[in-house]
Amino acid sequence: MLSKKVLRIFSLIITLTRAAGATPFSWNEKTDQIYVTKKAVKKAQFWLMVHLVFLLHVLLRTLHLQFYFEHDIATINFCLTFLFSLIMLVLMYFPQVVYYEEFVQFVNSMIIFLRNYEATWYPHINPDHTQRHRSLPNLLYSSILNLYSVAGCLTWLYFAYPTSAIFPNGVLPPTWQSSWITYLGIGFVYIRLVVIMASIILMTNAITIILSFSCAPVLTIDLRGDLAPEKHESLSGLRHPGNLTVVYRMVQICHILLLENVGYVVVSIQFLIGQYGLICNYAIIMHWGDMQLPAKTFLISQNVLIQCGWVLYLSLGAWVYTNSVKVLKSWKYLKLAGKGEVRYMGKFRKSCKPVYIGYPGLLRIRK
């Protein structure tokens, strides 16, 4: 269920990410839907191009160090780990900036589904008074605070070490390197990119958190046919075959929209995470004595944050798949009226597949 307070916070997140240039979305307060404008799309796509240019610079810089400064292994590995993290962030960029029309359709469809589901099957419950939705706003506010705090902490890397290999200052002519205009100009672009990175992650986290909290009772309680009646808060009519089949088909449609928007990103990041962990751990263990303290701190903190974040998403994927399997199996225990409904639900259950996070035919997160 979506409360008005949660939607207000979500609209705040949309406003922050659009102001940063990370996303092209705006919030319609009358319809509780998101939409895009041409100006916002151009702005977001411009900063995506800046990100790609920065990524290309780090890639070329890494290759240059690899071929011409082979002895500087610590710097090479530092650039390589930074390159991998940039690629993962750019991948998260694509659904929201390149395929923004499909993303808008997905988010709006989920909002419509959840609002209609709440109005139909929870008319007697105020979502603002449930324990689950009282904690959801605090979690969203903490995400905003934490991610932008991390972004602020990352800015020191440039101002402390502007000639680090990942920044373009080191390849500029000496006269340009000593210029305050160059120093502040590159610093401004770097800070803007860091804020945009935090905004992209914030939007992704916000949608994930809202959907997880809102869909949790649907998969764990409402659609289950093996639970005692007193455990259900939704109206009992939901478990009637005519209603249950329609609701689950809606869940499957939302699931298809989810896979279309994030499936390819999940597969790509799953591959990159494994390589990133190996490179980062190798650089820290084998070249500990060759790296300065800021580089060590940056690598360790970045590695911990990325790995922990991905473990949480994998755990969420396993939770979704496990509970979806339980839902399908529980339909054997529904109290049905007559053999006709038994045959109907049996055929329907065979036509259904568990929902999951991943990409059809390539990756399915199960456990």
Record field, number of beta strands: 4
Largest sheet geometry: 2 strands, antiparallel
Q: Output mean pLDDT.
A: 86
Percent of residues in helices? over 70%
Note the run of SSEs as H and E: HEEHHHHHHHHHHEE
Distance between the termini: 26 Å
Backbone CA Rg: 24 Å
What's the multimeric state? single chain
Low-confidence stretches: none
Derived structural class:
mainly alpha
| β-sheet strand percentage | under 5%
| Number of domain units | 1
Strand order of the largest sheet: 1-2
Count of separate DSSP helical elements: 11
Q: What is the 3D shape?
A: elongated
Transmembrane segments: 45-63, 75-94, 138-160, 180-203, 262-284, 304-322
Keywords: Membrane, Signal, Transmembrane, Transmembrane helix
Signal peptide: 1-22
Put the structure in a nutshell.
The protein has helices at residues 4-20, 38-68, 73-97, 100-121, 131-154, 156-160, 174-177, 180-222, 241-286, 293-330, 338-351, and strands at residues 25-28, 33-36, 358-359, 363-364. With 367 residues, the protein is mainly α. It has one domain (4-364).
